Amino acid sequence: MNVSIEYVAADGVARITLNRPDKRNAITGEMMSSLREALQRASHDSAIRILLIRGAGKDFCAGLDLSEVLKNAENADAAFASARRLGDLYIAMRRHPKPIIAAVQGRALGGGAGIATASDLIVATESAYFGYPEVKLGFIPAIVATMLRRAVNERQAMELALTGEPLSAPRAHAIGLINRVIPDAEFETAVESYASALAEQSATAMSMSKALLYETDGLSFEASIEAGVQANVQARMTDDFKRGVERFLKKS
User: Fold this and answer.
1) Is 134 a catalytic residue?
2) Greatest CA span in the chain, whole angstroms?
3) 189: burial class by Cβ within 10 Å (0-12, 13-18, 19+)?
């Protein structure tokens, strides 16, 4: 695995770190491939229940490595391969069987904001901010817009894409882009507590919940209910459910 992606597994949590702090953790093609390897590693490890993605240093991720993007722009095939690699990464995150938390400090910009929003849960420091500044470079947030549009309403997504202006963590929370804002001084402890608490939940129930919520996106009301019925039946058949109910009944 690329040294710019660190992977540490302990206590049910796979901690994945974007480790290129001198470049504000800007993502290269090699890092995208290594990040997908880390996702696969966590997927195959039955001891892992939660994935936690962080950035080393002061920032979460400044986006794609622009020098690499510019170089790829000279060749259509290279440009397509780069864009496809990024898209495949986001798809792998959404399809991952285990919940992914993005813990954001500092800046999460462009493709870095995409990594955050492709995660299932986002927690951020009060001083963190998010942004889609591509328009300021004559570019567009073409791939990351898919997650952005699903997280916030149309007008909010449009404003972020057209202005390229940064969004503070409190404002991101207010519009539903992120889950929690944590005081900077409490961030390390709070993130670990959050991940540890989730790691204690039923792995089967979390996996099924994640799959169902994304599966019903865009379905009609009736189709969503039907998907819920099918998932409900499957959940009743699991050992986790049976053990959970037995524990509850013993306490009653």
Assistant:
1) yes
2) 68
3) exposed
Residue whose token pair is 């009736």: 222
Check: CB of residue 191 under 8 Å from CB of residue 163: no
The backbone region for 176, taken as left when phi is positive above 0, alpha when psi lies in -120 to 50, beta otherwise, is left
CA 25, CA 202: separation in Å to the nearest integer? 33
- Reference 115, options 12, 44, 26; nearest CA is 26
Catalytic pick among 6, 30, 68, 134 = 134
What does the alpha-carbon distance between residue 163 and residue 5 come to, in Å, rounded to a whole number? 31
**Burial, 116: exposed, middle or buried (Cβ in 10 Å; 0-12, 13-18, 19+)?**
buried
Q: What is the pLDDT of residues 120-178, one digit of tens each?
A: 999 999 999 999 999 999 999 999 999 999 999 999 999 999 999 999 999 999 999 99
pLDDT in tens, 73-108: 888 998 999 999 999 999 999 999 999 999 999 999
Residue closest to 147 by CA, chosen among 54, 217, 99 = 217
> How far lies 21's CA from each of 36, 56, 217, in Å?
20, 6, 36
